[in-house]
Design goal:
The complex is a heterodimer of chains A (269) and B (183). Chain A contains two helices and 16 strands. Chain A has 269 residues and is α+β, with helices and mostly antiparallel strands. In chain A, 25% of the residues are buried. Chain B is an alpha+beta fold and 183 residues long. In chain B, helix 1 runs antiparallel to helix 4 and helix 5 runs antiparallel to helix 6. The chains are: A alpha+beta (269), B alpha+beta (183). The interface between A and B is large, with 32 and 40 residues.
Amino acid sequence: MARLPYSPSVRIVSLLIVITTLVGFGVAGAIGLTGARTAMSINVGSVNSQVNGASESISVPVSLRNPGPLSLNGIDVVITILDVNGTLLSTGGGGPLSLASGASGQLPIRILFDLSQVQQSTLRMLATTNENLTLRVSLEASASSLTSMSATIDTPYKWGAPVSNLQLGAISTSSYNATAVKISLPLSFTDASQNFGVSGTVSGTILGQAGNIVGTINSLNVNVGTQSSFADQLTGFIDQSALAQKTVTFQLVFQTTFGTFTEDLVENA
Amino acid sequence: MPRILDLQISTPRLIGRVILAVILAGIDFFIFYVLISPKDTFILHYLPANISSTLSNAISSFVSPTLPLIGLVIVALIFLDQIFKGTRIEGGFLIIMGGIFAWYTYTVFQGGTMNLNIPSGLIQNISGNITLHATLLMWLFILPSLLSILKGTLMLANANRRKPRALTRPTPTPQINPSTLQL
């Protein structure tokens, strides 16, 4: 028996198989081409950062072009900054933007990092600890309603603390009266922040081993620019009786333009 | 003259058919097994060990472990389809292959929502995931498979219509010029 001849209906279906396969690969190619060529055209402009009190406004101009055959709709960028525990510190973004085939567009991205909006414990952490925060970029786009894409990209964001490497030197004492002693001790720290200077005062109290107040620290003016160091003498008074204790805790209160926070340092009395 | 089921075929054409089947099965083995098998992908052997393992993990995140196995089934079916091409069971093969290809496409597209993890280490300081919602595209790719099933069904029906005539009107074996046979 010879090979079975294909009936007309089988031939039509065979033709349809070829056509639909070509259409499938054609559409997939068009989507891939549109996405890839647009991604390659993304041009990120210079980052502009402005600090106003406790908030830092970061703007990034992004320009892109769609050289692909399909239109891109709903291009939306959301940027969040998270701390090491995954707590949301800031959010911003840009869009939505639609780009017809061959069109160009601007996608200005703005993030407002407002330290006055974060919790006290987080502010203390951000003020005193250099951290690797997470910058999360969430991107959404769709190609001519055929397919949509969402992506989440995490990248480390190095945070330099405005009051990093905070140190107290050795306490020197001088007599004041029958119950109290005048103290003086060096205070130093480095402003490792790229944007936040430290301008304000540092004052505080001295706590004994039982947690009771045994002294006070006079207010000291602090004014230090970004990426520079600060060193000065703290002065205050401490109860004579507290000098017998092995250690005391200096509870320093920083009142700055970006917020008020407390830092405890244990010192040998 | 050799005979495959109900199909008489000359020895040179049979050899040619087997060679073609082996070549096609080899190409399909490369495409449907080697390229997508996360552990065996030959490209990984040419990359540095750290990138290779990270890339292997990334491939594993979006390539279903069943995909290479389905690929092997496809390879076997393509080989057999070439051998049995033109016989009364070709339609059956097309139906099975259409179904398997549809399953393969559905698995590749992860049901229409494809997730790709970018493990940390693949791109410096970058990690994350990409989700592609491509249900429409998936059905566009499944359509040829469904049409293959339809084609196979039509061929089977065609073959079944011819069978009774062959039984009621037995004819002597025709003298077929091998050059008129289609592979």
